[in-house]
Design a protein that fits this description.
Oligomer: heterodimer
Number of helices of chain B: 15
Radius of gyration of chain A: 21 Å
Radius of gyration of chain B: 29 Å
Number of helices of chain A: 16
Shape of chain B: elongated
Shape of chain A: globular
CATH topology of chain A: Amidase signature (AS) enzymes
Structural class of chain B: alpha+beta
Distance between the termini of chain B: 63 Å
Largest interface: A-B, 44 and 29 residues
Number of domains of chain A: 1
Structural class of chain A: alpha/beta
CATH superfamily of chain A: Amidase signature (AS) domain
Strand order of the largest sheet of chain A: 1-3-2-4-6-5-10-11-9-7-8
Largest sheet of chain A: 11 strands, mixed
Distance between the termini of chain A: 13 Å
């Protein structure tokens, strides 16, 4: 049943063909069977899941169930969960049990979704391969020698491996879209401010945005609708209330104008990815969409801008992990400064340290204007590019990642190569736009390729509509990795 | 060079705790004195994932202050992060304002005591005032070999008020700090409790040869929590800097602490190991936007300000600048005075001022009472003033009546003074016949003084007046005694 669409699972629950407890049990069994191979989960909350499933069954019986009641789901371990370990993929928080729920977590609890566990991730969401986890790398269900992408690689792999039908993720520079692409599932990052960041452990506050993974655009629409909405506890949360992002799913695509950024198609994309992307765009044309070339002249500056702004914010956001109040504290230390140094040296992994160092540097006296201020100016230029492009089109399409999933260990020694794998996704975060990745075929080694759709501000329903219509006429999203 | 060849330059940074119910970025209570960490919520202890939400009440208080000093209330200001590690700073950064503060400019006019019983006027310009959060407290005494952290204070709203380097003596610095202290209480944005740390001063002090245009190198004295310490610390620092320079030394920019026990300042850290705070705009908070409607609403709610009231006291009541400033030192004193004058009549405003600043202030001070707890009400004091004015009692007797009022001998009514005068028979004797009879008696009993007076000793006359007053138990009208005595002797 876990492999079915949310609509079908919900119908089965309603018609008493399956119970929420049975669904949770199935999900837990799949995790138990596959996690040793995939390492998608850091924590499995069997007792909590069964208790939540029992409560969901009561709601189903009472007729007060919503569309997500009784549906098993996994949270990226970046979201705080009351009473459940919340590690953020780090040794620093390997002992941290949150005393409160993130806003997203409590919304989905209220919706009756059944959390089965917390998924693996790059430490503090810094990475594009899930190799930067204190709990070991997550493996791609399509080929366990390959990375699942990151930083929400655990959530993407868990959904791809059909351990759960939906999962939450966060996307700071592509951390939902890229693993969705590499794992052959659908993932959406909404407009910045749609999903409350309260209880979502911060990496780069001005870029972090929660979002959804599912088998299809339709499932993502259901999950995202339950996650989004104004939260007074997050000052950057948009005023808009909750909305039904699936409201336009059935709309035909005739008249849809798809912008194709010249810069995305110029170079850098591998041939297999290009072939799949071109084919997907051809399919959209077949569905009635028109395409137009657009320009994002500053898109190439997205990576340098991002690797100033994100580390700057991260260097400050991660200062609270000092070993004083919670988290890892070194066993032996001399004075206070020694305690800080040792606790942080031991608690953080290499990539996190690298970004803290970079961020500290770019904010330092004498460098701030040259780096941070300059990067903010680039950010503005990039956002302006998108604004101009959206004068000509409704959505922008392109690749998500230059290549299919790469090998575990392949880029670990070269951070810059790793950073470049986010070249197509990062500009979207800098502009605060919504972006989606959906399966669009397979490339080298039979590994999935995703297509990225970028929307204008608040354009989530349009993105999901386009992807859904595509998925009505293609079956890439229904493909399941062998051995699952 | 002598001491007078040096000019002192002082600027103050004053941290005022704003009197909001809850913290600046969380819903936790700001009440003082709770059990350690009982008032620190998830946001205050900086749990992973928590976010700040700005308390509008703190902004409102900043606006009040800005309007009260005639500053620009910025239509858009920015919260920034000031990054440094310290155990009582849970996030590893303090949310403050850096490049764009909420209050910009403004000035305060003060009366500075000239040391000769008078005062002179001084205008101090303000650079800015910005909103920020307070840190927690490190408790070093209670734990052996360890430091305790109390985060109750973490997140308490502060308005940091920064002056221009306009002050030229410790007296001016203290007068400025006092005026600011009075003002923040007057406009009800801070309780001003210095023992509890609600009003803390940092003083930037430098010296330069008189006539030199450039400032000398400054040292910053941190955390002075009483006006006396402020004065002592600055005076010590000035002397220290002058002696250092005169001995051929050079002042190094530094942060110093004042030791109240020794009365000395000592360097805490030099410029070399000053922090690089890596300020940048806090991405968790939107720019603070204050529209003109908000400003106008706050303006409408402001009470009449001490400077305006002081001008009114001088203009309408004919008080001196010094008296008017003293009576506007706090809103409570000013209100008491206004109530007294309202009941006693504007013609008696000066007498009322003398009583409020004189006997009443002294008596309250001795009893350590606030004027709002005065046993003598404004109406009772007004009754007393009226009896002086209409010659029912003399000033000397009035002091007696005041004492009785203080002791509640006249009851609680507004006419308590009359009750006392009546009951104790203190009414002034103005009947010339009665006074003459007293004079005759005194003259008969003090022939020696009479002779001395006639021999040209003026003092003897005063002695005789004194004897007459004494014989009348102070009740005789002194002017009449004088006049009649002169006639008798002349």
């Amino acid at each position: 049943m876990i492999e079915s669409s949310l609509k079908d699972i919900a119908a089965a629950l309603r018609d008493k063909k399956v119970s929420a407890v049975e669904l949770a049990t199935e999900s837990l069994a799949r995790i138990e069977a596959g996690n040793a191979r995939i390492n998608a989960f850091v924590t499995v909350d069997r007792d909590g899941a069964l208790a939540a499933a029992k409560a969901a069954d009561e709601r189903l019986a009472a007729g007060t169930a919503g569309p997500l009641t009784g549906i098993p789901l996994a949270h990226k371990d970046v979201f705080c969960t009351e009473g459940v370990l919340t590690t953020c993929g780090s040794k620093m928080l390997s002992n941290f049990v949150s005393p409160y729920d993130a806003h997203v977590v409590s919304l989905l609890k209220q919706a009756g979704a059944v959390m089965v566990g917390k998924t693996n991730m790059d430490e503090f969401a810094m990475g594009s391969s899930n190799e930067n986890s204190h709990f070991g790398p997550t493996r791609n269900p399509w080929n366990t020698d390959k990375v699942p992408g990151g930083s929400s690689g655990g959530s993407a792999a868990a959904v791809a491996a059909r351990m759960v039908p939906i999962a939450t993720g966060t996307d700071t520079g592509g951390s939902i879209r890229q693993p969705a692409s590499l794992c052959g599932i659908t993932g959406i990052k909404p407009t910045y401010g749609r999903v409350s960041r309260y209880g979502m452990i911060a990496y780069a506050s001005s870029l972090d945005q929660g979002g959804a993974f599912g088998y299809s655009a339709e499932d993502c629409a259901l999950l995202l609708s339950a996650m989004a909405g104004h939260d007074p506890r997050d000052s950057t949360s948009l005023e808009q209330g909750a909305e039904d992002f699936g409201r336009d799913l059935a709309k035909p695509l005739a008249g849809l104008r798809i912008g194709l950024p010249k810069e995305f198609f110029a170079e850098g994309m591998s041939d297999d990815v290009r072939a799949a992307v071109d084919a997907a765009i051809a399919e959209y044309r077949k569905l009635g969409a028109t395409t137009v070339e657009v320009n994002l002249p500053n898109a190439r500056l997205a990576i340098p801008a991002y690797y100033v702004i994100a580390p700057a914010e991260a260097s400050s956001n991660l200062s609270r992990f000092d070993g004083v109040r919670y988290g890892h504290r070194a066993a032996d230390y001399g004075d206070l400064n020694d305690m800080y140094c040792k606790s942080r040296a031991e608690g953080f992994g290499g990539e996190v340290k690298r970004r803290i160092l970079v961020g500290t540097y770019v904010l330092s006296h004498g460098y701030y204007d040259a780096y941070y201020i300059k990067a903010q100016k680039l950010r503005r230029l990039i956002a302006n590019d998108f604004a101009a492009a959206f004068q000509q089109c409704d959505v922008i399409a392109g690749p998500v990642s230059p290549t299919v999933a790469f090998g575990i260990g392949e880029k670990s020694d070269d951070p810059v190569q790793m950073y470049l794998s986010d070249i197509y996704t990062i500009a979207v975060n800098l502009a605060g736009l919504p972006g989606l990745s959906h399966p669009a075929g397979f490339g080298a080694g039979g590994l999935p390729v995703g297509l990225q759709l970028i929307g204008n501000y608040f354009g989530e329903a349009r993105l999901l509509n386009a992807a859904h219509q595509y998925q009505q006429h293609t079956d890439w999203h229904t493909r399941v990795p062998a051995g699952v | 060079m002598s001491r007078t060849d040096w000019e002192v330059v002082i600027g103050l940074e004053i941290h005022t705790q704003l009197n909001t119910q809850s913290k600046i970025f969380s819903g936790a209570s700001t009440a003082f004195g709770a059990e350690p960490n009982a008032q620190a919520c998830a946001v205050d202890i900086a749990l992973p994932g928590v976010l700040p939400v700005l308390n509008k009440g703190a902004v409102e208080r900043a606006i009040r202050f800005g309007l009260a000093i005639g500053a620009t209330v910025a239509p858009k200001s920015i919260f920034a992060r000031k990054n440094y590690f310290y155990p009582d700073l849970p996030k590893g950064y303090q949310i403050s304002q850096y490049e764009l503060p909420v209050v910009q400019g403004g000035q305060i006019t003060l009366q500075v005591p000239d040391g000769k019983g008078g005062a002179y006027e001084k205008v101090v310009n303000l650079t800015r005032a910005h909103l920020e959060e307070d840190a927690g407290k490190s408790l070093h005494e209670d734990f052996h070999g360890m430091t305790g952290i109390d985060l109750n204070r973490a997140g308490t709203p502060l308005l940091e008020i920064v002056s221009e380097p306009d002050m030229r003596s410790s007296a001016e610095a203290v007068a400025y700090a006092k005026a600011l202290h009075a003002l923040v209480r007057w406009i009800d944005i801070c309780d001003g409790n210095m023992q509890e740390g609600s009003f803390r001063c940092d003083a930037n002090v430098s010296v330069r040869p008189r006539g030199q245009a450039e400032f000398g190198t400054r040292r910053e004295i941190k955390n002075l929590n009483s006006f006396r310490f402020l004065q002592q610390a600055i005076d010590y620092e000035i002397q220290w800097q002058i002696e250092l320079i005169e001995d051929g030394g050079k002042v190094q920019q530094a942060t110093v602490l004042f030791d109240a026990d020794t009365g000395e300042t000592r360097a805490m850290r030099s410029k070399e190991d000053a922090h690089d705070y890596r300020y940048f705009p806090d991405p968790d908070l939107l720019p603070l936007v204050i529209d003109s409607a908000w400003i106008e609403r706050v303006r409408g709610e402001l009470p009449e300000l001490p400077e305006a009231l002081s001008a009114r006291f001088q203009g309408e009541y004919g008080l001196s600048a010094y008296d008017a400033t003293t009576l506007t030192a706090s809103r409570e004193v000013a209100q008491f005075y206004l109530d007294t004058v309202a009941a006693a009549g504007t013609a008696n405003a000066k007498t009322c001022a003398n009583w409020v600043m004189g006997d009443l202030a002294a008596r309250l001070n001795k009893a350590e009472l606030d004027i709002t707890a005065s046993p003598v009400s404004a109406l009772q004091l007004a009754g007393l003033v009226q009896r002086i004015a209409d010659n029912t009692i003399s000033n000397a007797i009035a002091k007696k009546v005041f004492e009785a009022l203080w002791n509640k001998e006249g009851g609680d009514d507004a006419n308590a003074a009359d009750t006392v005068i009546e009951a104790q028979g203190l009414k002034q004797v103005t009947d010339s016949g009665a006074i003459e009879a007293i004079i005759d008696e005194v003259l008969a009993a003090n022939q020696k003084s009479v002779e001395e007076f006639r021999a040209g000793k003026e003092k003897a006359f005063n002695a005789l007046v004194g004897q007459c007053m004494k014989a009348s138990k102070g009740k005789a009208n002194p002017a009449q005694v004088n006049e009649l005595l002169k006639k008798k002797l002349g």
